[in-house]
Amino acid sequence: MKITFLGHASLLIETGNHRLLVDPFISGNEKASAKISLSDLRPDYILVTHAHQDHTLDVAAIADLSGATIVSNFEIVSHFQGQGYEGHPMNHGGQWAFDFGTLKYVQAIHTSSFADGTYGGQPGGFVLSSGGKSVYIAGDTALTMDMKLIPMTTAIDLAVLPIGDNFTMGIPDAVRASDFVECDAVLGYHYDTFGYIEIDHQQALKTFGAAGKTLHLLEIGASLSL
Ligand code: NI
Ligand code: MN
Fold it and tell me: Does domain 2-218 have CATH number 3.60.15.10?
């Protein structure tokens, strides 16, 4: 699996034969839109953790370009299906075997309304397993005891965790979250995009390092492989 950071909470995940885009928010993020072109992404699937605009802004535009199938909770998928898009609805605790691997939609503590106030179901995260590796994509969430359920069924190779604080976990709770999911390799996301979530990178790296963990902070457009 190759994971490319597209800014904020947006990721491109390349498995052997498929391209999965997570929470596309690029055109509204000037840090990302300068480097990433929507038409280059070409996803087969778009995974959406929750309905907030900083996670859904470019879903329709990219699905228009690539014909991707949108995977999210029932309410978000119904919203996009109502506009004519392909979708695969899930809900918490449910797992499905896709052609790229398996996805499980897991709990997050957050909210999930669309920008116009429309109900976007309950927010979640994903456990993605593909090619013998598993990644936990937390979505926007507080630290939650439910994270302890994840390693009971799946050994996590990389935890993608929000670290920007204010709207989600901050760094100390993200360290605890990595304990809860029993994974010492963390990709931080949901930081620096706007003023409420700016972080001190050196302090973040130091805090994870002191806990015996590796925090990856990728430049926009940079990748890591599992
Ligand atoms: Ni959110
Ligand atoms: Mn967010």
Answer: yes
